[in-house]
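sry for the spam today, last one i promise. struct tokens for design, 72 residues
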């Protein structure tokens, strides 16, 4: 994986706790993320388990990142 693919990834929410969630990535041998913060879209938006989401990772890491939104 290079370039933008390392920063932006599409995955599936596996669990949600408060304002964070874990995401698995089927295209990366079902790797599961650490707890990622959710960028809220409106006051009450939170992804649900099995939602397909867009994740933005911090440059140079596979652990720090944010869930930007649900892909419909």
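last one done:
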């Amino acid at each position: 994986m290079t370039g933008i693919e390392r920063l932006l990834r599409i995955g599936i929410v596996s669990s949600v706790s408060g304002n964070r969630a874990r995401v698995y990535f089927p295209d990366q041998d079902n790797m599961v993320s650490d707890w990622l913060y959710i960028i809220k879209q409106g006051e009450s938006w939170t992804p649900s388990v099995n939602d397909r989401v867009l994740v933005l990772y911090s440059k140079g890491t596979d652990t720090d990142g944010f869930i930007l939104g649900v892909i419909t």
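The chain has a mean pLDDT of 86. ok im logging off now
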